[in-house]
Amino acid sequence: MNKTALDRSYWEDLYNSNKTGWDIGYISPPIKEYIDQLNTINLQILIPGAGNSYEAEYLHKKGFQNVDVIDIATQPLNNFKKRVPSFPKTNLIQKNFFNHQKKYDLIIEQTFFSSLHPTHREKYVHKTHDLLSHNGKLIGLFFDVEFSKEGPPYGGSLKKYSQLFSPFFTIKTLDKCYNSIKPRFGRELFFIFEKK
Ligand SMILES: C[S@@+](CC[C@H](N)C(=O)[O-])C[C@H]1O[C@@H](n2cnc3c(N)ncnc32)[C@H](O)[C@@H]1O
């Protein structure tokens, strides 16, 4: 399979065969901690490649009303509709992230970037930059490890991420994550990037 262009059917097949090893089943503690310090409830928030999106569920339950969830696959969005029936259906968007157009104050990243072939990383940087409003933020987690097996996931390092994002974003935080879940402990970086 050509892994540089993983399409919808690739992801649908993984969901249909329950091969969703990335799915931790609840909001990850570093992202929860970030959300807990937000005090502007009307932020426009995007979660791309959201999967089952426990982050969107958490935000919704905290009263955030402008949260968009995007995934190319239908199954996680259907799971989400069942799990969180009060979440507005129009904010559940089944689409290729790279074709999406809107402006956001905040984009939350978790294992979507790492699921993209490294040849698509620059495209991701440009797209997240385009989707953010003035001073908008891209925050989340990156793997701090180079995987020996062909991905996804594809890993990286602090130096690589810094080189990739710093021409377009001010790097506010890019540090070893201290509150990762156990299996990812020592293998993740938490970041906050602000649009330049
Ligand atoms: C590794 S999973 C991560 C899911 C979720 N963020 C999590 O951490 O549990 C990658 C997700 O990105 C979605 N995806 C892959 N390519 C996409 C694209 N071009 N546009 C939108 N979603 C995409 C997949 O369907 C899958 O749900």
From TrEMBL:
UniProt keyword list: Methyltransferase, Phosphoprotein, S-adenosyl-L-methionine, Transferase
Keyword Methyltransferase set for record: yes
Keyword rRNA processing appears in the UniProt entry: no
GO terms under biological process: methylation
Coiled-coil stretches noted in the UniProt entry, renumbered to this chain: none
GO terms for MF: S-adenosylmethionine-dependent methyltransferase activity
InterPro entries referenced in this protein's UniProt entry, alphabetically: SAM-dependent_MTases_sf (IPR029063), TPMT (IPR008854)
Full protein name: SAM-dependent methyltransferase
Organism lineage string: Bacteria, Pseudomonadati, Bacteroidota, Flavobacteriia, Flavobacteriales
